[in-house]
What does this fold into?
Amino acid sequence: MNDFPLEPDRAAMAEMGGLVLDRVLDHVESLPDRPAGNPVDPRLTADLVESFLSPPPEAAGDLRALLDRLDGAVDCALETSGPGYLAYVPGGGLYSSALAEFYARGINKYGSFAFAAPALVALEEGILRWIARDVCGLPDGSTGLLTTGGSMATFSAVVAARHDRLGEDLADGTVYVTAYTHHSVAKACRLAGISARNIRTVPCTDDLRMDMTAAAAMIGADRAAGLRPFLLVGSAGTTDAGTVDPLPAMADLAAREDLWLHVDGAYGGFFRLTERGRRRLAGTERADSVTLDPHKTLFLPFGTGTLVVRDPAKLYAAHDGTGNYLQEVVSAGGLPNYAHMGPELSHEIRGLRAWIPLHLHGVSAFRDALDEKLDLAEQVHDVLSGISALEVPWRPDLSTVAFRVRSRSSSAAALEEADQATRDLLARINDDPGVLLSSTVTHGRQTIRVCVLGHHTHADRIDEVLELIAAQAKQL
Ligand SMILES: *Cc1c(COP(=O)(O)O)cnc(C)c1O
It folds into this structure.
């Protein structure tokens, strides 16, 4: 009997690791055959859910038995990494990143201050500089922070913008978004102390992009009313339809009006690795700050977002803070102290989960995978456009295609009928375990979305999904 059960010996550790590795390999291998949606009736999962709500036992358990229990929980979950998951924004889950994560947790180094692990902080900093300069096109000196997700990245961006442009007096600061801006932006603003009253929804043009004439007029009116416009937010790929706001015109407006320009590239940002993406996301390089989500568009497992900023000093100014107990902290060779760049103090070496995949597979593997997703989305657009019962309003800017049932006329009754038919069509498509699509509302109309982003999603599955949609649409 081991006196210190929290410290298993090498043989025990190897055995435990083997058990977990086997489960993960089984899971990854089975992804193509697993249902894309939640396969289990919620009423049947009640007992399972209840069992996981119970507190941990006093006595030791058995890893094999615990993993068996977990299998049940894993089976009643959306298969966000599977090839047929085309709902919301699919999750990645690169195996190489899971290994990196295991390694990072195994060595468990402290990444909050550069002096504590200078080379590992440099590793993370290298990823951030690459994202800031090579991916986003920001100037030398730009860098940022790896966060737990896009929402946290945007939160720190808003805090930096607010601190830089408003100082301590927040009451009159106004922010400009559209109805298709991700809700995490408004949430970040409220968390940052900006009144919901001062978040302006700028109208969109027919193609779901910010109407720049309306934006300029609203900013002018707010200024005339004594308010302080300070933040303009552009979407580099909306969740609804993957559309990109007119970023160059937004950068012009921000410069003219002295606003902080934040670009939300949580979904779209990494498409800048491709030639097409770089063209469609032109203007990103003029932003003050950009959110990107490696757990979406770099295929990493959930829990990794990125904020990059043009001027890191502004991020520091907004998040700085220290205590007497930190008096031994010294600066280390021009490297960042992440504790002073965001809300978190303790910070894992988050960059490892990107560093191992990027170095192991090479950037070109990611570029090719993203190009493949753009190709597949164009194919979805072209095939669905050829189905007369459907309406495909927009050619995809990125890898999301929005469509709906065509309305017989523009009368309110006909539109309502088409909306109901769209809901029914989605339900019938999702009856097939090989696919999961989701829906949204665009210009007041029910809209189904196909978001192609999983690294396991290839032409074979997309062909099957298109055949399924065509067959279901025939029955309309
Ligand atoms: C997913 C998403 C977010 C939020 O990011 P999280 O990582 O889920 O916090 C913000 N904006 C857009 C466009 C997104 O797709």
Notes: The chain has two domains: 102-361, 364-473. The longest helix spans residues 363-385. Residues 89, 149-151, 182, 184, 239, 264, 266-267, 293, 305 surround pyridoxal-5'-phosphate (CB under 6 Å). DSSP finds 16 helices and eleven strands in the chain.
